[in-house]
Write a structure and sequence with these properties.
Distance between the termini: 40 Å
Number of strands: 15
Order of helices and strands: EHEEHEHEHEHHHEHEEHEHEHEHHEEHE
Shape: globular
Protein name: GTPase Der
Number of helices: 14
CATH class of the largest domain: Alpha Beta
Mean pLDDT: 82
Number of domains: 3
CATH topology of the largest domain: Rossmann fold
Radius of gyration: 25 Å
CATH architecture of the largest domain: 3-Layer(aba) Sandwich
Structural class: alpha/beta
Family: Belongs to the TRAFAC class TrmE-Era-EngA-EngB-Septin-like GTPase superfamily. EngA (Der) GTPase family.
Low-confidence stretches: 27-39, 165-173
Function: GTPase that plays an essential role in the late steps of ribosome biogenesis.
CATH superfamily of the largest domain: P-loop containing nucleotide triphosphate hydrolases
Strand order of the largest sheet: 2-3-1-4-5-6
Subunit structure: Associates with the 50S ribosomal subunit.
InterPro entries: G_ENGA (IPR031166), GTP-bd (IPR006073), GTPase_Der (IPR016484), KH_dom-like (IPR032859), KH_dom-like_a/b (IPR015946), P-loop_NTPase (IPR027417), Small_GTP-bd (IPR005225)
Largest sheet: 6 strands, mixed
Strand content: 15-25%
Length: about 450
């Protein structure tokens, strides 16, 4: 079934021009006069290999529902209910208006994922509005010129995640991170990774209470990433929580992986990390922490996934206290970018610690999906700058203007200012660590991007 993408925005921001650009024909009437489009218009869009149904809608106006403009708005709302993705178009030359803010608030309340598109962004005239659109709090805007065809590659990249065939087959709808109730209802996508023979499949069998996965003393039994839908009953609250457990192939050192089949299995395990929300890195208590474990952990963090460390076979561990403390210290040293990762000891054979592992995974997903209110983020920003002002290399002051949370899952922030190219990495780490510590993200990976004013279409 074809994906359906809807174009939404106030009048005269270029929605129909974008519609025509995507269908490759001038099907929709275009004029400088606002309100030309009234009914929904459907077309077959083609964008660099992506094929989908595009829906043009009437300009959103705040009018009485019984008026013509009000009824047009109701048509747009109805179209949104059947859409897979919404393109929220704003006019970069005109800047953000109160009506744009109203549309943004409405879209954030809906379940349909939204891509913010700053149209008419060509040249310097659109630069101010492009950066102003970050204030809508809807992530990175895609700068385009529908009239001249600029920015289509960037629009393709923004749309691509919603056309992933594997995601479609999994049948899991996207979650609005701000809807806590929907987030709690949605299955937790939990992948278990690690070196061969760490007990990943055995752990899943223990959780399920049945021998669902083939296990044995031989390393490398699991080849394909196996996804299993399961319901966990929280022993503290008796609440039933859905989970999608993902077992993966063991990931050995790259130099040891020579067979084609194992290479494919490892690649499949990496794909499972991409699909997951929370990743369990499973260690073998009889072997401790090895360099390969740190490499796997770094891969998970680079992909922006929430990570927890689980030491299996704890029932046969020697010097358990020393082992645990040694692993904790080695993780803090080897993964300095995210200190304080949850470390749990479990035994898949006896079932000890497995409920705590699942409960911690749900807590991590909540932190990974968290959005900080603007007021709280501003208070933190002022406090962080007062406690430790940015340096002045060469006597020239670095000015940090403001910060915004661009997205969640993983939490991503954009810092705006001048001379940011001279900002030391140590100060970036200070800000990132402060965000995690002060704003409740704890050990969840946080991304901080630096932005200085520049023409979005200027070629370096």
């Amino acid at each position: 079934m074809s994906r359906q993408v809807i174009i939404i925005g106030r009048p005269n921001v270029g929605k129909s021009t974008l519609f025509n650009r995507l269908v490759g024909k001038k099907l929709a009437l275009v004029d400088d006069q606002p309100g030309v489009t009234r009914d929904r218009r459907f077309g077959e869009a083609h964008l660099l290999g992506l094929d989908f149904t595009i829906v043009d809608t009437a300009g959103w106006e705040e009018e009485d529902p019984t008026s013509l403009s009000g009824r047009m708005r109701m048509q747009t709302m109805a179209a949104l209910e059947g859409a897979d993705v919404a393109l929220f178009v704003v006019d970069a030359r005109h800047g953000i208006t109160p009506l744009d803010d109203e549309i943004g608030r409405y879209l954030r309340e809906q379940k349909v994922p939204v891509i913010l598109v700053a149209n008419k962004a060509e040249g310097r005239a659109g630069e101010g509005g492009y950066y102003e659109s970050y204030t809508l709090g809807m992530g990175d805007p895609v700068a385009i010129s529908a009239e001249h065809g600029e920015g289509m590659a960037e629009l393709f990249e923004a749309l691509l995640p919603f056309f992933n065939e594997d995601d479609e087959e999994e049948g899991l709808p996207p979650i609005d991170p701000e809807d806590e109730e929907a987030l709690n209802r949605a299955p937790l996508k939990l992948a278990i990774v690690g070196r061969p023979n760490a007990g990943k499949s055995t752990t899943i069998n223990a959780l399920l209470g049945e021998d669902r996965l083939l296990t044995g003393p031989e390393a490398g039994i699991t080849r394909d990433s196996i996804a299993i839908d399961w319901e966990w009953q929280d022993p503290k609250t008796d609440e039933i929580r859905p989970i999608r457990l993902i077992d993966t192939a063991g990931m050995r050192k790259k130099s040891l992986v020579v067979e084609k089949l194992e290479k494919l299995a490892v690649a499949d395990a990496r794909h499972a990390v991409d699909f997951a929300e929370v990743v369990v890195l499973m260690l073998d208590a009889t072997r401790g922490l090895e360099h390969q474990d740190l490499k796997i952990a770094s891969l998970v963090l680079e992909e922006g996934r929430a990570l927890m460390i689980v030491i299996n076979k704890w029932d046969v561990a020697e010097d358990a206290s020393g082992l645990f403390n040694g692993i904790r210290a080695a993780l803090d040293e080897g993964l300095a970018q995210v200190k304080g990762l949850p470390v749990l000891a479990v035994s898949a054979r006896t079932g000890k610690g497995l409920d705590q592992m699942i409960a911690t995974a749900f807590e991590l997903r909540s932190a990974w999906s968290k959005r900080v209110p603007t007021a709280a983020l501003n208070r933190w920003f002022d406090s962080a700058l007062s406690a430790n002002p940015p340096p002045a290399p060469g006597g020239k002051r670095i000015k940090l203007r403001y910060i915004t949370q661009a997205k969640t899952r993983p939490p991503s922030f954009i810092l705006f200012g001048t001379r940011l190219d001279a900002l030391p990495k140590s100060y970036e780490r200070y800000l990132t660590n402060s965000i995690r510590r002060d704003l409740g993200f704890n050990a969840v990976p946080v991304r901080l991007t630096l932005r200085m004013p520049k023409n979005p279409f200027k070629k370096d």
